[in-house]
Amino acid sequence: MTTRRNLMAAAGTAFLSWDVAVRAAQAQTPPGVLVMAKQIDDIITLDPAESFEYTGGEICGNVYQRLTTTPNEDPSRLTGDLAESWTASNDAKTFTFRLKDGQKFASGKEVTAEDVVYSLQRVVALNKSPAFIINQFGFTKDNMAQTIRATDPRTVVLTTAEPTATSFLLYCLSAAVGSIVEKATVSARAQGDDWGNAWMKGNSAGSGPYSIVSWRASEAVTLQANPNAARPAATRRIIIRHVADPSAQLLGLQRGDYDIARNLASDQIRTLSGDNRYTVLSQRKASLIYIAMNQKNPILAKPQVRQAIKMAIDYEGIQKNIVPSNYAVHQAFLPEGLPGALTEKPFKADVEAAKRLLAEAGHPDGFECSFDFFSGAPVGDIAQAVQANLAAIGIRPRMLPGEMRAVITKTRARQHDLALLRWGSDYFDPHSNAEAFSMNPDNGDDARNKTLAWRSAWEIPELTARTIAAVKETDTEKRVAMYEDLQRDHQKQSPFAIMLQELEVAVTRNNVRGLSIGVINDRTNYAAIAKA
């Protein structure tokens, strides 16, 4: 009994207001209810027009449909989700989508072109963190009534400001921010000009296989099957519990408290992989771990300091000793698997070379700076290793552990010095990451496009222009070469030490089938998960 209480304390989930199904899951998950253990303290909101974090994107992917999507078995292939067909005008500026019949929201109301128009205009008008994915096509609050419109109940017409490759537009529309919400439900909850954003933070109005029952920050998300979904869910209820400690996830999986564990450590995965009571699933993700260096800090703004930090890190040692089953060393902003991704690894730990660079920058004795990071495993362990690597060259980080959403909020406000972060691609095109890491068209505090480069106050007009040119290039081979050159220059100049690419591993009990892990976070699908 003492062990059980300790488990509950470690998991941080001892609260009294759960429903009967959740309390039943404490002992053995009942039929029709699946309980997943996962680190979910990165959730800031579940509004798809605002959510820009790992777990929020994954949940939105199971609650909403988009016009287009990409299948996990072939993530570069575009297919219709709500759209049955689309056409582009000869000038590549007008795109017409025809909706499928019979797609219904959880309310039972059929999805119409009016809902699609409302959803996309809502993204533009709110202009939250992920809005740039849609706004980059020239949509603004002033012109959206003319550029995003319905011509009949099943037809949507989008007009871009400049000629646009059809595939690029479709990839962007397949991102979580392109989720389609029910206009009647959301608009009825609007407060002032918030387009229902306050209500949508913890509620849903989608046509995906699940709808949101509740979200309690750093505790749990509960989903229930949408009886009207085109892709009916195999399990009527899914409970995702925040369990920060991988050891608590493992113990709960072994006891039957959890059906799926999503954040086990490498040694735990190795142990379970030979046990026929469990199934180990893995997927290389378009997801990176990197260190951001804020250029508002005058020391970190020196090129020699940025390169010294990159040369101080023991990439291979961190991967081998901390995350051998969960991450691979990767040092370019395009994850392996995306077109144009570099697999070269120009950086390795070189203490003497890093010290020489610091001396050239005028800091032979090093310096102090703050270091923000997520306190949970394995990120917290990686941060401790980086601290030791930096200390070896004289840099003294003030360690600031915190919940993931707190770290994200701080870096979005450009209030960090160093920060250890994760980034996942939003769609399966190289521009998804190129825009984030190598574009900053406006470095002002009130900029419209707040990319990762903006968050670290990295002013780069030349790289920004090259990134824009790359996304407009129509010759595939030339475009790939442009991204390769961008990544090499980025490695030499940027305030980002890109370290690792995620190999996501989930472990299920052997009576669980159907979890599909996506290359991109919002493609991880729950609809087919079932328990025998």
How are the elements arranged and paired?
Elements: H1 2-11, H2 20-25, E1 33-38, H3 54-63, E2 68-69, E3 79-80, E4 83-88, E5 94-99, H4 113-126, H5 132-135, H6 144-147, E6 148-152, E7 155-159, H7 166-173, H8 183-188, H9 197-200, E8 210-216, E9 220-225, E10 237-242, H10 246-255, E11 260-261, H11 266-273, E12 278-293, H12 303-312, H13 315-322, E13 327-329, H14 351-360, E14 367-374, H15 379-391, E15 395-402, H16 404-412, E16 418-424, H17 431-438, H18 452-455, H19 461-472, H20 476-493, E17 496-509, E18 512-513, E19 530-531
Parallel strand pairs: 1-10, 1-11, 14-15, 14-16
Antiparallel strand pairs: 2-3, 4-5, 5-7, 6-7, 8-9, 9-10, 11-17, 12-16, 12-17, 13-17, 18-19
Helix pairs in contact: 1-10, 12-14, 17-19, 19-20
